[in-house]
Amino acid sequence: MADIYHVMIKPGDAMAEVDRALQALKARGVSREEAGFHKYMFVTQARQTVLMLTSRESPLAADLRGRGWMEPGDQPLKT
Fold first, then answer.
1. CA separation (Å) from 6 to 34, 36, 51, 61?
2. Alpha-carbon distance values, 2 to 5, 48, 50, 55 (Å)
3. Which of 1 and 12 is assigned the larger pLDDT?
4. CA–CA separation, 78 vs 16, rounded Å?
5. Of 42, 46, 50, 72, whose CB neighbour count within 10 A is largest?
6. Does residue 68 surpass a pLDDT of 70?
7. Model's pTM, two decimal places?
8. pLDDT tens digits, 14-66
9. How much is the pLDDT for 2?
10. For residues 48 and 12, is the Cβ–Cβ distance under 8 A?
11. Predicted confidence band of residue 3 (pLDDT cuts 50, 70, 90)
């Protein structure tokens, strides 16, 4: 069975923004794995960055949610 990941997207190449967020979390003692990071990529055809996280409630998701990242899917965004 395939693993299930939470996905966040942002227009443009935002990979450096993810790197900075991971660095800030690391400075607070949170590793990439503990932050919920799995993988990211810049999709050139769509001109957007796709981020895969282990959980919707991960520290990295919480950090990026406040920076305009979108969460596609069938679950309404809790604000």
1. 15, 9, 8, 9
2. 10, 24, 18, 15
3. 12
4. 26
5. 50
6. yes
7. 0.85
8. 999 999 999 999 999 999 999 999 999 999 999 999 999 999 999 999 999 98
9. 77
10. yes
11. confident
In the numeric block, the tokens 């810049």 are attached to 42
Q: E strands within the chain? A: 6-11, 37-43, 48-53
CB atoms < 10 A from the CB of 16, how many? 9
Phi, psi of 75 (to 5 degrees): -95, 125
> Can you read off the two tokens belonging to residue 32?
């990439």
Structure tokens at 59: 């520290």
Residues 6+ apart with CB under 8 A from 6: 36, 52, 53, 54, 55, 56, 58, 61, 71
Distance (Å, rounded) from C-alpha 51 to C-alpha 15? Answer: 9
Q: Are 24 and 34 contacting, i.e. CB atoms less than 8 angstroms apart?
A: no
Q: Maximum Cα–Cα distance for the chain, whole Å?
A: 36
